[in-house]
Write a structure and sequence with these properties.
2 domains; two-stranded antiparallel sheet; DNA polymerase, domain 1
Length: about 290
């Protein structure tokens, strides 16, 4: 909606039905030239406009030509040291600390951690099954030993909450569409319950079920932002920084890059290779000539 609004205002409030490829091209070019947006932002704007024409106005958009492309910047990921990770985690409490520990200890993305279901935690095998990750891929990663006991205590409290919900006629969670049709009562089973459920329930408009969603990502994002400030870090660390730190620290410990690639769920090892450029080895392990004076 935001990009569509900006597109209409850019062309003097003309209706999108009166415009086509040339106007889209001029708008995208202005973003790169005048707005100095990144390449991903320009692509996002194009996707929004394609959605407008194809799915809302039901018009086929041809090839958008003569677009000034924004340059894709190649930036190194922000990585925390082990001491910095420890300092940030010490500022977190409760389930926020559990989530952040999984981001660092298992290399999970934030939504991958929040969408974990009880059945995805394999305590006996010390592993986590990530379902429908980025690119709709499943993968397995490690379950950190340090988080097993607090995670089990957390699940006991969540299970009690689930039992209380069931007693009130609630206790449902969202199930993938096809499975929900095949197993109508699976949404009330404990195995399908979220590991990190939301604090409030809601009523599904389609089914009338009283459901509980997983914890919203903004809750953890705000908590991590405050924790980074309280830990007095000078880096712009976020939830995703834990994942970057996980990969970098594994490579520092001498683990094979293919193993790290598999744990992160990267399709191409070239994506994982970027962490070799931020290893804590002081300029790729080269001794500075100043240290020999």
């Amino acid at each position: 909606m935001g990009w569509i609004r900006r597109f209409i205002l850019f062309h003097g409030r003309r209706h999108p039905a009166e415009m086509a490829e040339p106007e889209i091209s001029r708008f995208l070019s202005s973003l790169a030239v005048s707005g100095r947006v990144s390449a991903t932002t320009q692509t996002q704007a194009l996707s929004a406009l394609l959605f407008l024409y194809r799915d809302v106005l039901r018009r086929d958009v041809g090839w958008v030509k003569d677009v000034v492309r924004a340059k894709a910047a190649r930036r190194l990921p922000v990585v925390m040291t082990r001491d910095e990770v420890r300092a940030v985690l010490q500022q977190l409490q409760g389930e926020n600390r559990l989530v952040a520990t999984l981001l660092y200890g298992a290399g999970l993305r934030l939504l991958e951690a929040l969408r974990l279901r009880v059945k995805d935690l394999e305590f006996g095998a010390n592993q986590i099954v990530v379902r429908d990750g980025k690119g709709q891929k499943d993968r397995r990663t490690m379950l950190p030993g340090s988080v097993k006991e607090p995670l089990q205590r957390h699940l006991e409290a969540v299970h009690l909450q689930h039992q209380q919900d069931l007693g009130r006629g609630a206790g449902w969670v969202e199930i993938p569409t096809a499975l929900g049709r095949k197993y109508p009562n699976a949404g009330r089973e404990w195995a399908w319950h979220w590991v990190f459920p939301a604090t409030r329930t809601y009523r599904c408009r389609e089914t009338g079920q009283r459901r509980r969603h997983h914890l919203h990502e903004s809750v953890v994002q705000r908590a991590v932002h405050v924790a980074v400030r309280q830990a007095r870090l000078t880096k712009t660390a976020s939830c995703h920084t834990f994942r970057h730190s996980f990969a970098t620290h594994l490579l520092e410990d001498g683990h094979d890059i293919r193993t790290v690639q598999e744990l992160l769920g990267h399709r191409d090892v070239a994506t994982t290779m970027i962490y070799t450029h931020v290893l804590n080895r002081g300029g790729r392990g080269v001794l500075s000539p100043a240290d020999k004076l």
